[in-house]
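Progress against Task 2.4 (sequence-to-structure conversion) is shown through the following example record, which the project officer requested during the mid-term review.
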Amino acid sequence: MIRWQNSDLIPWSIRRRMLAAVGMKLHPDAFIEPTAIIYSGNLEIGSGSYINNLFMIDGLGHCRIGTGVRIGPAVKLLTATHEITNTPSARASYDVAHLPIEIEDGVWIGAGATIMGGCVVRTGSVIGANALITRSTEPNGLYLGSPARRVRDLQVDERPAI
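Structure tokens generated for the chain above:
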């Protein structure tokens, strides 16, 4: 677990180098707030992406965050899981599976949302606050609820963002 980077007293330029030293691939203009909890170096973050306070990623499953992604406070990316066993006294197996998560370009994930391993959040999607993503989304949709469902299509404007 990476805790040393969780301080406002350590400038972002130094925190960035520390994160890169443990294997993270961060675009030079990506930014992670210092209170993020990162349990894995198996993380890629693209250009212009922003990760807010109290973000958490656990497990060792690969996680790729595309360009222009906005992640709200207290969002969780859970890459680790267990198989369900046939033993009533111990339903979670001891073996841990690490499933990848991919968040494509232009996604906005609202505060408190959870993305489960094995999911792809497609380009231009908006994930509402406290939503639970248990399966991959389709592009340009608004997803709300637990488990999340697509509640509407989002308009696509071909003009570049300002």
